[in-house]
Amino acid sequence: MEAGVLTALKATIDAFDFAMAQSDRAKAEECAADLLRRWPSQGAILHAVAIALSRFDNSNISLIALRAACATSAVPAQWLVQLAIFERHQGSIDDALTAAEAAIAKDPCLVDAWLERAAIYLAREEPAAAAEAYDRAFALGASTFALHVNRSAIAVNFGQMDVALMHAEAAIACDPSSLVAQINAAMIEGPVRGYEVALARLETAGLACDDPSLHRARAATLLQLKHFDLALAVAEQAVAGDPQHPLGHELRLAALKSLGRDAEAIAIFDEPVVLALSAPRLLVHRAALKMDGGDREGTRVLLRSALARDPGLAVAWFHLGEIADFDTEGADIGAMEGLLEGGARTAFDRVQLHFALGKAHLARDDYPRAIAHFGHGNIGKRRLIKYDVARDERMMANLAREFSAPVLAQVAPNANRSERPIFVLGMPRSGTSLVEQLLASHPAVYGAGELLAMAQAAAQRGSVARDEWPLLAARYLETAGADAGDAERVVDKLPLNFVYVGLIRILFPKARIIHCRRDAVDNGLSCYATLFDKGHEFSYDLTELGRFARAYTQLMDHWRATLPPDRFLEVDYEAIVADVETEARRLVAFCGLPWNDAVLRFYDTRRAVRTASQMQVRRPIYRTSINRALAFGSALDPLRDALAGRSPSMARRP
């Protein structure tokens, strides 16, 4: 380089440095433009200029200088990574990817290049490719807070909960003081290790901390643990700390709904802050309350309004499936399939969309597509939960031994003799909601819904002396009858109370137990086609579902053999469908009540119903669910095999 040129170059660099020292952006960019025009091949200088100018927001000349530097010879891979970052921040995602790929080509072991590649794929909404890049960086020794947080989020999105938890805990190791990392780990930990473990993490992380995000996480975990009163109190703390965050209001609604305080839940929608938010998910919650009350049209309007604001809102599509409101032309199916193909937001969104599509195809009698979507939905849901069917099989076998015939034959002198409680139980989707609705249509009967009170009594029995068990009975009656007024009978229709039949008999020897039965394969199909609001983890795999149902049948055989027939009645769903009046009269007589014609108008009874059958029980008897499993053919063979106690491989031998 000639002396005069070198002098001019040095003078321009000095002027640039002085401008930068004075934070004179205009002068610095003028000098940079001069350098670009007169010395475009000076890669090192242009790179230094670009990096220096990056301190100024949106410096276009900085990006131009870095592009020019990377166009010179012998470019280091790290420069290309920096160019990729600049391009991504400017929104030039394709150019950013080109630069990152060039960096990797130059140095395949450059961690920063793989991390930037991951960030670019996240910006392109391609989480699978981002995960691959993060995993490569991790394999090369990278362990940064951002890497682990982002990789954990991607794993949750794909339902890879063990991977998600591993990275969530690695993020905590990178920054033990991060509340965000602790909350993230707890939210993943709940379904993997148990919600009690997750709550303990949150309680420890939140010592002396009044953070709305922590309160939201605690409230969500408490809801899973069914601590509804405490969940409500914590959700209200979250709302007080951040009233603009919709999730806080959603958690309040969920807690109030779980507590049966519907009027208070509905009133939330009239609060000024909630009206101002107008969040689509809040519209879905309002729709759910309408659905509980049997207002199908109100539900439909709110769900469609939510989708108009957010067409990708999977939970709204799911609830449309619950009220069977898909269009007949197939546009809704196309929209949902488009969401799946385009990458739904989360793993649970995909689960909800698959269940909704299953319902949509079932309504069109397209059984192959219906079962395919139900299958994908169940596989996705099963990945998100922790469940061991063998544990449930052992539990049911142990209950039969604990409450043997000799034990149940001994009625304690101080046992509670109330005839008020009626327990309607059986497998989920076996007709328990229909039986409750029939009985609750009688003026002397109050339908309390699915109460947790007996499960709570069962959990407490080990810490209460046997001669004090009447205290458990008294607590149960207080809970069950809280809203029953002067009703002679109160129906508790929690299906899984079938595991507590022995305890019910001891606590309430005069109580009536109604066991709802249904064809096992039809029943299993109905469970498999249902995404339950909570619980029923056995239903998301056909073999596990069959094993659970087989153990249930064996336990019910035991109860049938040990309970007196005037306290234990079995009713078949198919019999109700064939002759509702005969079965209804049989039910009413068993409950010790006079007949009332209102029972036959059960579909007109106005009461909140919060089960998967909430829309069906508001319709007259229909027959379409009888023998429905036949239409699915061999797709249900794993269920049939497990029900029969056969292994799948043995069942299919010629």
Fraction in beta strands:
under 5%
Q: What is the percent of helical residues? A: 55-70%
- Topology, number of strands: 5
Level-1 CATH class name of the domain at 389-408 and 416-649:
Alpha Beta
Describe the structure.
By secondary structure, the chain is mostly helical. Among the domains are: 296-384, no CATH class; 389-408 and 416-649, Rossmann fold (3-Layer(aba) Sandwich). Helices cover 63% and strands 4% of the residues. Strands 2-3-1-4-5 form a 5-stranded parallel beta sheet. The N and C termini lie far apart (87 Å). 43% of the residues are buried.
List the helices and strands and how they pair.
Elements: H1 3-21, H2 25-38, H3 43-53, H4 60-70, H5 77-89, H6 93-106, H7 111-123, H8 127-139, H9 145-157, H10 161-174, H11 179-193, H12 195-205, H13 212-224, H14 228-241, H15 246-258, H16 262-268, H17 272-277, H18 280-292, H19 296-309, H20 314-322, H21 331-342, H22 347-363, H23 367-383, H24 389-402, H25 405-409, E1 421-426, H26 432-440, E2 445-447, H27 453-460, H28 469-480, E3 489-492, H29 501-507, E4 512-517, H30 520-528, H31 542-562, E5 568-572, H32 573-578, H33 580-590, H34 637-643, H35 648-651
Parallel strand pairs: 1-3, 1-4, 2-3, 4-5
Helix pairs in contact: 1-2, 2-3, 2-4, 3-4, 4-5, 5-6, 5-7, 6-7, 7-8, 8-9, 9-10, 10-11, 11-12, 11-13, 12-13, 13-14, 13-15, 14-15, 15-16, 15-18, 18-19, 19-20, 20-22, 21-22, 22-23, 24-31, 27-28, 30-31, 31-34
